[in-house]
Amino acid sequence: MTTDLHGPLAAYAARLHTTIGDRHHVASPLGAWLLLALAAATGPDRADRPLAEALTDALGTDLASAAATARALLDAPHPLVASATALWHRPGQGDGGPADWRAALPTTTEVGALPDQAGLDAWAREHTLGLIERFPLNVGPDVVLALASALATRISWAEPFDVADARAFGADSPWARRLRRALRTPDHGHRCAIATTPEAGEVITHAASAQVDDGGGLVVLSVAAAPQVPAADVLAAAYRISAGAADGAQPAGHRSLFDLPLGDAPLWTVREERVRTRARDGREERHTAVLPCWSARSEHDLTGPALGFAAASATLAKALALPVRSFEARQVAMARFGRYGFEAAAVTGMFGLTSLPPEGVRRTAELRFGHPYAVVAVATDRRSDGTTGPWHGVPVFSAWIAEPEELPDADA
Q: Which of 39, 127, 181, 278 lies 20 to 30 A from 95 at CA?
């Protein structure tokens, strides 16, 4: 099945990155979107209309299509992208709803009793190649429902970068003064372009591909615009261009170097020289790029109204007949981009919370048996039919304790 996810996911990514802002960060819109799709899979027919509309709006597609897309992705794992999802609930809770909600989930989704914190952390490590150490939420006594997704990749470039002096970033770049070395594209294997986009104007692009043996690949696309262009617009342009990146297509709005003036521009320098070329019209174009190594580790609050988790929590509560009163949702993500490869991981979690008892005052008494006292051993004799037998309530042994003994070392 070919999924038509790019449009809905690009729209969701715009919402997510807008809430995060322009600070240095990494995120997985897909990881968050998958959780919403799992909520949709549990039974959109059972969600009331306002909830269904809110969830549909966040997903960018109808609930049935979102659920089918999630099943297609998760039940046919990508060779380079580890993926996992889970839906947990408190033992003895979550069994009161219709029985068919489990069947609607992807077959790979783990369903069962809510783990403790150590179990949640272990799940995060196991399904992110060890890149994420802890689950993004802390489980407490008020958690009755948990939904989780994990995505991870660790790849080597098909063609590693060369190394350049960081001054290659240009005199106007603050990174040229902060760094000593940069990454330069090799002669072959990386794709670069200059393009005009409706979101960010003129941009430069770079795409590096993973080294693969089995046909499944991964392309990491980098897109830069002029420094004054807002981050949200550059990210939107990057998502637009990424639609064709998997097929190696030139970005829409691609600019020929022969349509650009020679010399320096804010994002590039164009030079011309006489060469031997087999280009059909005798005009050969060649791009190189200079990029920095980078890494990021981020945590994101996903409770904002535009992100859909309020509707997802309420939908799941109805499907599972759980007493959910509020929710928490967070994502933790990391990524590292270097000369020889790329790695990234994200764990997204949502908790459905029940109301705790009202706050009051508790007294605790510690009782001290520090002088002689009495002991009586009383038999119990309850039968399976609810009646009691003749031994029930009979004191069998009694004692007066006046000479205590030390606890044996073996029992200490």
A: 127
